[in-house]
Structure formats: structure tokens, C-alpha cells
Amino acid sequence: MMSNQQDIHEMLVQMSAKICLLEEELADLKCRIENHMQSNQEMREAHGLY
Fold first, then answer.
1. Which residues have CB under 8 Å from 8's CB, separation 6+?
2. Rounded alpha-carbon distances, angstroms, from residue 48 to 9, 39, 40, 44
3. Which pLDDT tens digit goes with each residue over 9-47?
4. Is the pTM of this model over 0.85?
5. C-alpha angle with apex 8: 7 to 14, nearest 5 degrees?
């Protein structure tokens, strides 16, 4: 069990760092998905498929 404030503070710091990393990964994934969808759309248009 977390007993003193120092332990709790340390846990919060670690959680914040993990959240920051997750946000970066999500932003990267979102970017990749958008690029993928965009290239699929361009390919469909190039082949006359909508």
C-alpha cells in the first residue's frame, strides 16, 4: 500500500509520464491512419472507384 505522500507523488509522476507517451503514440497512430485513408481514397479516385 502507498502510505506516505512521497510514494503517492512518485506514482502520479510516473503515471503522468506514461500518459504523455501514450498521447504521443496515439497522435502518431492517428496520423498514420489518416495518411492511409488518404492514400486509399487517392487510389480509388485514380482507378475511377468512389
1. 2
2. 58, 14, 12, 6
3. 999 999 999 999 999 999 999 999 999 999 999 998 898
4. no
5. 90
Task: Calculate the dihedral angle through the C-alpha atoms of 28, 34, 39, 43, rounding to the nearest 10 degrees.
Answer: 150
Residue 2 CB partners (closer than 8 Å, separation 6+): 8, 11
At position 27, the amino acid (one-letter code) is A
Q: Round to whole Å and give the CA distance between 11 and 3.
A: 12
Q: Give dist(CA 24, CA 50) in Å, integer.
A: 33
Bin 6: left if φ > 0, else alpha if -120 < ψ < 50, else beta.
Answer: alpha
